[in-house]
């Protein structure tokens, strides 16, 4: 199936320039706005995983008896790793009915072709069946030791 540009892109009525997205935006007033502008994909080059596949992989890691629970996501500068991490934090860290969680699910659904709705169903069911996870944000741009960062992140969460 060949997708058309209009099926992938959507028009923005307002534009706001931000030089980058940081995972710390999870706690900012810009969080929801940034979520509305993340685009999930279900296609990836051979041997790679799309952002939708990664969400599924992370959900699978929480299954009882899962053996794989540590992951490295690699991409060049500016390819959306922090924006993806922000979407994940909102998916896993918010209540099922929260506007942020609904927005992430909407964006995931938009990124999946109609013939692959089983993946979306799994991701949606996972969200409905699990309480919010504790999201700790350990910032690499703050100078302090790991115990201090963890303590600060716990207080913030």
Map the helices and strands.
Elements (H helix, E strand, L loop, with lengths): L4 H4 L22 H6 L14 H11 L19 H13 L5 H12 L6 H13 L16 H11 L1
Helix pairs in contact: 3-6, 4-5, 5-6
Content of β-strand? under 5%
Order of helices and strands: HHHHHHH
Helix vs. strand class: mainly alpha
Number of helices: 7
What is the distance, rounded to the nearest whole angstrom, between the alpha carbons of the first and last residues? 43 Å
> Which whole number gives the mean pLDDT?
89
The total count of strands amounts to: 0
* Proportion of helical residues: 40-55%
Unreliable stretches (pLDDT < 50, length at least 5) are none
Shape: globular
Radius of gyration: 16 Å
Largest β sheet strand count, sense and barrel closure: none
Protein architecture, described:
- With 157 residues, the protein is mainly alpha-helical.
- Helix content is 45%, strand content 0%.
- It is built from 7 helices and no strands.
- The protein has helices at 5-8, 31-36, 51-61, 81-93, 99-110, 117-129, 146-156.
- Helix 3 (51-61) packs across helix 6 (117-129), helix 4 crosses helix 5 and helix 5 packs antiparallel against helix 6 (117-129).
- It is globular, with a radius of gyration of 16 Å.
- The mean pLDDT is 89.
Give me a quick take on this structure:
The chain is globular. It has helices at residues 5-8, 31-36, 51-61, 81-93, 99-110, 117-129, 146-156. The protein is mainly α and 157 residues long.
What labels describe this entry?
mainly alpha; 157 residues; 7 helices; single chain
């Amino acid at each position: 199936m060949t997708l058309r540009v209009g099926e992938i892109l959507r028009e923005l009525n307002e534009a706001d320039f931000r030089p980058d997205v940081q995972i710390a935006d999870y706690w900012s007033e810009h969080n929801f706005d940034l979520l509305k502008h993340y685009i999930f994909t279900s296609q990836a080059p051979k041997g790679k995983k799309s952002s939708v596949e990664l969400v599924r992989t992370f959900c699978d890691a929480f299954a009882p008896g899962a053996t794989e629970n540590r992951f490295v996501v690699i991409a060049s500068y500016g390819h959306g790793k922090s924006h993806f991490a922000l979407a994940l934090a909102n998916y896993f860290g918010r209540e099922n009915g929260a506007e942020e969680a609904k927005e992430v699910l909407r964006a995931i659904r938009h990124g999946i072709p109609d013939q692959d709705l089983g993946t979306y169903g799994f991701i949606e069911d996972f969200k409905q069946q699990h309480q919010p996870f504790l999201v700790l944000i350990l910032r690499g741009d703050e100078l302090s030791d790991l115990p201090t960062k963890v303590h600060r992140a716990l207080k913030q969460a």
